[in-house]
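Entry 14. Ran structure prediction on the chain below.
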Amino acid sequence: MQYKTLICLVVFVVLFCDAGKIFPRTNVTTETRACQAPLNTFPFCNTSLPIADRVNNLISLLQDSEIPPIMTARHGGGGSPGPPGNVSRIGLPEYDWGVNCLHGVGSTCINDNGTIRCPTTFPNIVNYGATFNQSLFVELGSLTATELRSLWLMGSTEYLDWTNYPHVGLDCWSPNINVNRDPRWGRNPEVPSEDPYTNGIFGTMSTKGLQEGEDSRFIKVISTIKHWDAYSMEESDGVSRLSFNVNVSEFTLQDTYFPAF
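Output, structure tokens:
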């Protein structure tokens, strides 16, 4: 009975809306797409060409100084603090690499002509891990990807103040398959379990849900599995995860931290 109750709690979803983070629906997403007229005559805009040829053409048009902001998430690229990552001279828009999709899309709500449309907030991932239900893992990814696509089309933005509200991109920073071993870590609800094998299965299945859509020619959204690797610390005693020099034995890396990835 307890197991059935847990499953019911995991399947149950809540529509979440922060009244302070509702944005009007606009056509702002045209600014997030390349190849808008009149800058639509470059070879990389030609969808009849092979992907490799289009990518090579785009790279050839970029200047060295333009590349770092494009490749940087949340600091320089995508409208976050720092110089924007767009290259206007060739019609290349800014792009936000950092949308969190751990248990739903981390974005603002949209006022769609009086109808408030918000991303669904699903249960925390530690609850999903407790079900051992692989089809549920896939469904979580698939529903999240569908909502991100929709919110992107409607012009939704990131919801955190410090990001400067860039347009959401189609990259999800999820799933999180780090190992849940110490409650002092603080991010324990983000991960499925303390077992590397279970985490690897969750990572595989949720990624399939995020990326595999009805049309095999396209990736639905891009999964970014995190955090590589031996990531079990935020901040403690004045030491930050951004500067901590972790000391992990080779055995622990191979036995605990690498298998899920």
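The helical segments are 2-11, 51-61, 67-71, 125-131, 134-154, 196-211, 250-257. Will compare against last week's run tomorrow.
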